[in-house]
Each structure stands twice: as structure tokens, then as C-alpha cells.
Amino acid sequence: MESKVLKPILAVYVGLFLLFLYGPFLVLGILSFQQGPEGGPQFPITEWSTFWYKHLFGLAPPSRVSPLPIGEALFRSMTLAGMTMITSTVLGVMSAQAFRKNFRGKSVIFYLIVLGMIVPGVLVGLGTALVATTTGIDRHWWSTAFATHVVYTFPFAFLVMLAIFNRFDSSVEEASWSLGVSPLKTFRKVTFPLIFPGVLSAMLFAFTLSYDEFSRTLFSSGRDQTLPLAIYGTFTVEIHPNVFAFGVLTTIFSFSLLAVYAILMTLSVRRAKRVAIQEAIA
Amino acid sequence: MSVADAQATVTIVPASTAPLVSRDSASSYWLIAPAVIFMSLFLVIPILMIVYVSFWTQTTFKIEAKLTLDSWQTFFASDTYITSLFTTVRIWLIVLVTTFVVGYPTALFVGLFVRNKTLQTALLVMCVIPFWTSFLIRVLAWRPMLGKEGAINIILQGLGIIQQPIEALLFTELSVIIGMTQIYVVFMVGPIAFMLGRIDPSLIEAARDLGADFWRILRKIIFPLSLPGVVVGAIFVSVMVLGEFATSAALSGRKVNLLGNIIVTQVGSLKWALASVVGVILTVIMGLVVAGLLRIVDLKKEL
Amino acid sequence: MTVPLHRDALGVARCFGNLHNSQRLRSPYIGALDALAGKMAVEAAIFSLDGVVKRYGAHTALDSITFSIKNNEYVSLLGPSGSGKTVLLRTIAGFEAPDAGTVHVGNHDKTRVPAHLRAIGFVFQNFALFPHLSVFDNVAFGLRYGIMPIAEDAVRERTLKMLDLVGLTGLGERGVTQISGGQKQRVALARTLVTEPKLVLLDEPLGALDANLRTRMRIELRRIREQLGVTFLHVTGSETEALAMGDRVIVLDQGRIAQIAKSDDVYNRPASANVARFLNRYNVFDGVLEGDRFTSPYGQFGFGHRVPDRRSAYAIRYDRLAARASDGPQNGGATLEAGYVASEYLGSAVVHFFEAKGGKVIEVEHHLSNGPPAKYVAGARYVLAWKPDDAIVFG
To answer: How far is the alpha carbon of C119 from chain A, nearest alpha carbon, in Å?
Structure first.
């Protein structure tokens, strides 16, 4: 009875909620087509143009607005995210595999790993910077910053793999052993193909988290900036619609990344699904 | 298990089986060792280092490993720092409340009222989609929204609700709270919706048949059952808000200084010892908050 | 070898599910397989367990298990759930380490040898097929990735031959999720047998199949085993399966071996009251044994022979009882009064259920080869009678 009244009210509320989530993006998207180089990062739109997109790629005529240093920063961020993704996924799979058995210190190690995602980035960045300066190690995006990124993304990969192994029927592994196949080869030929969808999710997690990470990177990356640091740099100075245009592009890029993941996932799931349907018909 | 117990176990187990059992867990140790070494080197040691350096002697140009309480005294003697401590706690509490208030009805709708799995997933995915846009861009996107000539003021003026643009929207504590709420509310919605989705609808039917009105059902049945989700969401939000500095840097126009901002400024001027003091204080607050939240429900039992 | 169906076992087989139909189905590949079988010389005890103990905390799952299996033998392992039969099988396979005792294959001590070096096959109840591989690749798996490298040509040849043997000709390219339960069972079996293990452990291999398929697969299992001359240790919770399939039956009771004997010996002379209970073919009464009198709550009974056991009990097989009207003539023998409850048709026999005082259910089996079943009135009292010589007393 109440639900007849309540449900529509809540539905309207959820609509407003989504508007709250997406509103800024709409505004950002609209303002990225602001006229340039005089047009500012606010309404009204003086004239629709793609100036700021051209500006981003260095195709616009020189003006007082300096171009965003995204070329190299983008390369660094992608490389760093790739390195982080591989390392934390490998560590995540290994650790989750270890957690399938009982061993002494298991719960302490669990908390140690989860700590990596709970401790705020500023603290990890600060600590790493302190260790680096006192030991005289140079800070680089590919060394110290890489370590802080793995500390952050590895727990996510670990938890994803833990959930996957929780539902994993280990009798297929035992079956493989009993056929005379060594544990290592069993992992390669049976376990890994079966946990692969989980590995993909862990990789996606690790990549996106690392790609977007900046609070750890801020203190630990040294001189060369990653992409989020380049954007963070614009906070202090006057912002121009080129940042908005850049936001639109990164969003599109993120979605294409997501699409690649979805395609890979569908491909690996489709066979099983098609088979299940055929079985249901038969 | 105490050491004495462990020794007793060893003597009871026949000697012949010992190699097999230890080899069994030995493979686990080899697999987990890289992770433990990595986390010790790059997480535990850096955090211990923060504690250690907070007692170092700081001069204008360098820092020495001579232990002193100077930096701690500087922190507690300074109004600026104490204010920032209170601001951090205040903003954390406010954002905790706003994310809960804004998020709970959404979670209620998604988790309890939508029983169609596809629609439920679609709604949750819609909540998560913004996460594939850079965090910093999402923060920046609030500037053209809240500004004096921003979208909200334009719309409100267009509707004739206000005559003069509201200037308090941007570069104030309010803008920081609005920004943080939007960014972190999803971490509240997800866990709560998950817990609500597990409620058996017949339970609510039964309560309704007994004549309980919706508010009563919400208070007595729905909310208690969703509490573990609220706690998980609160941990997520707390951990992230307490370590924040970017949102306040982008949206407050330097008016709001959180502990995170202090760390960033101090590191910028190479005041490592003071930055470490702030880091230790932040860690302590964080530990207290997480421990306190975990006391509310036994998550191991609930999840 | 021949199926060891003795006189009594034949009776069992008949009432259990027409095993006399299980004539060997001739395969065109028998010539090739004779050669394979010939490789495995008949020798004593290809496998033995000695004093195997397995504990989980305070619970002892296996308590000094000792037995051996001869080459080319079909042994059933029977026990109720929780008796430790799956743990025993997993210990033999090397998935679990025993806390004491040894596992020998041939003359080699395999107690510390990891599972993949034991050359012991394992067929799982849920089949445990590799879901990401085709039927062919499932069967070829052990040959391809095993410790002994084999040329892909030979892998192909052996795999195709094995698919033919188990009746999966032409199904090699199917995904293993695209085939029926019975076919999955065959893939699981073929996958194990193609690696030519000395011993194959089967963990309730027919448990996941429906009743109809189960009977057919029983026959298939025996045929395939006999053609290959491989040794089977077949774990089952079903007494009919254990008795019908095994040359010998091992009965497990609370982690201990209660009896090891030929099927008909287990059936006719259970070694303990518990074994008699597991067989599900005996009415077992508790009571007190004094000299040659057994006193149960239903009266004093005479008995034929006595089997030593820790607790006393009295067992009479379902088909050795007859029910008659309670006011009919009494002609000696053991009797007990009970009310008729219901009957159940089994095809070749009818089982009548009676309820004695205290709610004890007593089953009386009537073979239809002895004439049509009598009609009983529900709730009416009847006298159940048997010859004391047919009864076994434990204690």
C-alpha cells in the first residue's frame, strides 16, 4: 500500500540522484565546446567551437593559454598503469593461491595486504618519500611511485582472486594430478584458464586505479609528472576549457578500455553460456 | 596458539608425517612471500618511517635524525594546525552524514524496491560509471557547476527563484562538501544496496500483514539488516575523506585546509618532520575511526 | 575372467536389478585391448595399505586401515556417509596425507609420493571434467601433459581408441558441457583409463546419474574394466551397487574396516550387526544374548549361528520371513506379532512393511517367483515367522 506511493517517490529521487552524479559531466561536456582562446570555463557559451580539442593536440594557433603537458604524461601514466597491472595481478593470483591452504600467520598477512587499500594515499606517498630521501634513493614514476601504486592495487587484485578461488571447484585440479600432470602444469593448463575471467577483472581494477592515482604519486614520483599530476597542476592556476575537453577525451578513453574488457569477458563467457543453453534445450 | 602448545603438537604428530605436512604449507609460504616482502618494504616501513621522522629535528634547510618533540609542540601550539584538525574531523562527519542521507534512499530503491535483477544491475552500473573518469576531472567539473556564473546559478535565475547569483556556492566549505558527497556517495550506496538486496521480501510482507506501517518496518527491520552495509560504506567514505586534499584544493579556493593539505604544503617546503607529525595524527584518527566502526557490527559474521 | 556369481549372489542380483543381463558386450576393439591387458601380468597385491590413520583434529576419520588388492580385481568399498570412505580414497590417491601408516603400489612405498607420480587413476563423483576443453582434449589431457612425453600422433590414436571403447565415437569435438550425464561419466572414465593406471579409484562414480542410467553404467563399468584388465576400487554408499559390482567388498564402519569378503559372503554372513544394517537386507533387533537364547523386546528367539561382535544383536534377512494370520496354526520356529503398514513393488519382488511394538519397522520380502503376493489388511495384526537356523546372532 505504502509502496504504491513510496516507490514512485523513490524512483523520482533516484532520477535526481543520477542527475546529481552526472550533472557536472554534462556541464563539463558542454563547456568543452566553448569558443577559444578567449572563452572562459563558464557560461554563457560565446560560440560553439572545437578550438579546445585542437588546442589539446597542439593544432590550435599559439595563444596565451599554454598547452596541457599531456603527451609524455599520458605515456608515463599508461606505462605505469601497465606495469602496476601486471605486477599486482601476478602478486594477487599468487597470494590468493597461497590462501587456498591454511598456514600459520594467515590472518595477520590478510590484514597486512588489506592495509594497502585502507591507508590513505598521502600517508603512503609521504612515507615512501621519507624513506627515499633518507636512503638517498632517487624518486621516479617508474620506481618509487610504481611501488606505491602496487601497494594500493595489489589488495584489490588479491580480493578479486580470493573471491574467484572461493567458488573454484578444486576437484578439477585433483583430477589433473591423478592423470599424472604435475601441479605446475596443472596450474597452467587447468587452473589458469578457469580463473581467467577473474584475472581480467583484477587487471582492469589494477589498471584503472593506477591510471587515476595521484595522491600517492604526488610525493613519490619525483620530477616527471604522470597524467593525474598534470591535471592536479591546473588546480592552482587559472583553468581553461582545455581541461574540460581533456576530461571528455579521458572519459571516452576510459569507456573504450571498459569496452575492451567487456568484449574479452563476453568472449570468455560466451562459450560456456551457449553450451548451457544447448544443454537446457536438450 | 602459544609456543608451548605448538611444541606439544609437534611431539604428538608422528615424526614420519612431519615432512609432508610442512611441505604442504611450504608451498603457501613461497607463494605468499613476495607479497609479504613487498608490503613490508613499501607499506609497513614507510609508515614506521613517518612515526620515526616525526621526532626528528627540523631546521629551515635540513632535517637531522636527532630525536626531539619540537615538531609535535609546533603542531599543538599553532592555531592554524589545530583548526585544520577540527576542520578535517568536521568535514569528515558532515560528509559521512550527507553521503548516508543522500545515498540511503537510492540504495533502498535499488536494493529493495527493484526486484528485477537486470534493472538492478543497470542502476548500479550507472552509479559506478563516473568512476571511469579521472577523479581530478570529476572534482574540476564542479567549478562550472557551482561558480557565480555556473550552471546552478544560471538555472535558478532562469527559473526566477533568485535574483542575485549565490556566491557562497563555490570556494567555500559548502562546495567542498558538495563535491565530496558526489564523489564518495557511491561507496555508501553499493554496500547498503548489497545488504538490502539480501533481505527476504516475505519478511517485510509478514511485518506488513501484522499491521506495521512502512516507517516502523524501515526502523525495526530494514535498517538493522542493512547496518553492516552502512558500516562498510562508512569505512570506505571515512578512509577516503580523512586522507583527502585534492577536493579542498580545487573547490575551496584555499579556504579549507584539511590535514591532507597541510601535509602537501609542508612537504612542498621540505618540512618533513612537521608533515610526519600530521601524518601520525591522521593515522591515529583513521585507526580510531575504523576500529570504532568495526565495533558496531561483526563484519566477519555478517558478510 | 568370469563374473563370480554364486548361487546366493545370483539371488541378490536378481532382486537388485537384473544383473544376469550383464553379459559382456563384445567390442570390436577387443583384440587391441587384449594386448594392453596382457602387459599387466597377473601378480599378487598390486596395491596395499598398512595401518593408515587419518585424523582431523580430535576426530579420527581413518583408524588403522589395512588391506591389499590383487591385480585385475574389482573391489567395492561400502560404507554409510561419514564412515570415511571418501577420505580413504583421497588418501590412497595422494590428495590427503595420512597421519600414520603406508600406501604401497606394487613394491613401491608411495606414502610420500605426490598425487601426480602415483599412477593411480581417480574418477570423481561430480566427474570433475575440464569445462574449458572438448571431449577429445579431456581424454587426451593426461597423455599430453603427463610426466611421460608422448608424440601427438600416438596421443591421437590412443585417445580415439579409448573414445571408441567407452562408446563416445564421434563425440570428440563436443564441449564437455554439451553432453549428457552418462556421456560425462564415460569421458571421466576414458580420461583416467587412457593413461593406463595400475589402479583406478572410483568415488561414487554413479551417484550423479539417474537410476536407469546407473544400472546401464554398472554393466558398462564391468565390461570396460574386464577388457582392460585394470584394478578398480569403487567407493559407494549403495549396498546393491557394492554387492553387484565387486569381486570383493570392503565394508567401512566409523573409519574402521568392518568386513572384507566376497560379495556373497558379505551378503550371507555379515561380520557385524552394523554391516547387516548397512546391507539394508536384514531386520536387526537389539537385545541380550545369554547362552543360546537371544532376548529381544519382542520375545526370545533361537538362531542358527553366532558371529562375535562387541554388542549383541539379532538379524534375519527380509526374504527369510513369512507373514501369516495371527490366529493361524503355530508350527514352532521364531515368531513375532506385528501390524501391517504397506507394501512396495520392486519388480521381481514385493516388500511388505510391518510395525512391531515400539514402532520398530520390519520388512518382509516376497519373491514373485514364489507365487503372487498375499493380500494384507492395513492395521491388522499378523504373525511374522522364520526358521531360527536362518537367523544370525551377533555378540
So the answer is: 7
Separation of alpha carbons C163 and C173, rounded Å:
11
Q: What phi, psi does C103 have (nearest 5°)?
A: -120, 120
pLDDT, position B97: 97
User: Side chain identity at A131, as an amino acid letter?
Assistant: V
Q: Are C330 and C312 in contact (CB under 8 A)?
A: no
Q: Do C97 and B13 touch (CB under 8 A)?
A: no
Q: Which residues contact B56 (CB under 8 A, 6 or more apart)?
A: B63, B64, B65, B66, B67, B68, B71, B272, B273, B276
Q: Model's pTM, two decimal places? A: 0.80
| Whole-number pLDDT of residue C329 | 60
Q: What is the rounded distance in angstroms from the CA atom of residue A75 to the CA atom of residue C124?
A: 51
Low-confidence ranges of chain C (pLDDT < 50): 1-43
From chain C residues 180-239, the ones with a CB under 8 A of any chain A CB are 180, 188, 191-192, 195
Cβ contact, residue pair C112, B24, below 8 Å: no
Is the CB of residue C131 less than 8 Å away from at least one CB of chain A?
A: yes
Spatial contact of C124 and C135, defined as CB atoms under 8 Å apart: no
The closest of C291, C269, C290, C266 to C391, measured between CA atoms, is C269
Locus of grid cell 575440464? C130
- Which residue type sits at C352? H
ipTM: 0.84
Calpha distance A24→A22 (Å, rounded): 6
Contacts with A, B 47-86, CB within 8 Å: 47-50, 53, 65
Give B10's pLDDT tier (boundaries 50, 70, 90).
very low
Phi, psi of C344 (to 5 degrees): -140, 130
Q: What is the DSSP letter of C272?
A: S
Residue A270 — very low, low, confident or very high, per pLDDT cuts 50/70/90?
Answer: low
Structural domains of chain B ordered from first start: 17-53 (no CATH), 70-302 (1.10.3720.10)
Return the closest-CA partner of residue B261 out of B24, B115, B128, B80.
B80
- CATH of C7-119+197-268, picked from 3.75.10.10, 3.40.1190.20, 3.40.50.300, 3.90.650.10, is 3.40.50.300
Q: Specify the pairing of strand C199-203 against strand C120-123.
A: parallel
Q: What is the 3-state secondary structure (H, E, C) of B232-285?
A: HHHHHHHHHHHCCCHHHHHHCCCCCCCHHHHHHHHHHCCCHHHHHHHHHHHHHH
**Which among B27, B137, B144 is the nearest to A27, CB-wise?**
B144
- All domains in chain A, ordered by first residue: 1-65+241-282 (no CATH), 70-239 (1.10.3720.10)
Per CATH, domain C281-394 is 3.40.309.10:
no
Q: What radius of gyration, in Å, describes the C-alpha atoms of chain C? A: 24
CB pair distance less than 8 Å for A41 and B249? no
Cβ neighbours for C32, distance < 8 A, ≥ 6 positions apart: C161
What is the 8-class DSSP label of residue C146? Answer: B
Residue C220 CB contacts under 8 Å (≥ 6 apart), including other chains: C25, C166, C167, C186
Report the greatest alpha carbon distance in chain A: 74
Alpha carbon of A67: minimum distance to chain B alpha carbons (Å): 17
Sign of CA dihedral B234, B240, B243, B246: negative
> What value does the mean pLDDT take over residues B78-102?
95
Look at residue C392 and give its three-state secondary structure.
Answer: strand
Label residue B81 exposed, middle or buried (CB < 10 Å: 0-12, 13-18, 19+).
Answer: buried
Cα separation, B92 vs B82, in Å, equals 15
CA-based nearest residue in chain A for residue B135: A212
Longest dimension (CA), chain B: 89
Sequence ranges of the domains in chain C: 7-119+197-268, 281-394
